[in-house]
Target: PrsW family intramembrane metalloprotease
Amino acid sequence: MSSSPPRPGHPALPPNEQPAWLQYQQYSPQYVAAQAQMNPTPRPTLRRWLLGGLIVAVSLVLASLFALLYGYSFGVVWTAMGLLAALLPLTVVLPLFLWLDRFEAEPWRYLVTAFLYGALGSTALAIVVNSLGGAFLMGVTDEESATMLTAVLIAPFTEETFKGLFLLVMWWFMRHEFNGLTDGIVYAGVVAAGFAFTENIQYFAGAAIEHGLGGFAMTFVMRGIVSPFLHPMFTTMTGIGVGLAAVSHSRSTKVLAPVLGWCAAVLLHGLWNLSASGTGVGLLLGLAGGFVTFVAFLTFVMWARRREGRIIGEFLMPYAATGWISSDEVGMLSSMKARRQARSWAKQHRGSVGTTSMRSFQDCASELALLRRRMHQHPVDAQTLHRERVLLDSMTARRREFAGIA
Model:
């Protein structure tokens, strides 16, 4: 095999017929040392620091405004109680999406930004637009009808639009990080969890003001226990659409998939608000429909996770064929259970260093597989080929560490 740079669309080739990782020592000691210390994740640039600072500053301003608004409207005590109660559903909702994200974990800074945008940015925009829409309806109809129309027609449209906006921004500006269906679901769920968190504070505290402790408890049961996944389920429809668009070759799919996903989110949201605004049979039908939708949602999430494992295995096979990794490693890397077993093995044989190296090896492999997938779907440039080689070299260095090769 040639040691020359790989042709576009082909995996980086090892230096000869022997497995590439066994030939690693052919390089100079300086090169080996550099690769052993290599972190394939680039360091934050000045632009990233400035953008991060801006996000923090805007979040602090919006959080302060929400604190003043809720404190004035509901009082400090009930606002604090609402905030504590709103935290509890997050302990169930967020772990599900982080579990889904285990094969190729998204950077924490993006996940935190998604949550902050959902909790503060999209919520603030939705409150403004919903209030303006409600005020307009109050001028043309009675108060009860205006409230109903706002909940069923205006709120689903505005809320799903502003939540989905984050997904479009991620897809457009972070295409190298946004890897398709799973990423669309994860970011949609995190944004929606943030939105539901802030909205729940309002609902919990408002119910306490109107109906006392009993109203607070009933609202918590309905929103925090019975239906904590509603907002994530709605926005996941948009996430699926954007995720499909991100991996599609078709121009029509790139346009239609996000639009259809958003339409599904708005429709489901509107139907739920319609059923929740009623009583008796209508509410029971809404709860039954919500339960069926939730079961379907969980089934889809589990399928999506298994699908990502199959994709990782499929697109790592070319590297097994050229000697960069073994077929046994491909099997391990495409199964979350096998990954856990491999980390346990590394810990038993190499301690904490082995665990860290094995985890890094697995993370690099996931990113490599998804990079390889993008190479099949989009034109390959020099930066992509360089990134491929960086990941391969990093995997080789990490393998040497957890295998104890000097």
User: Anything to note?
Assistant: The radius of gyration is 25 Å. Residues 283-406 form one domain. The chain has twelve helices and no strands.
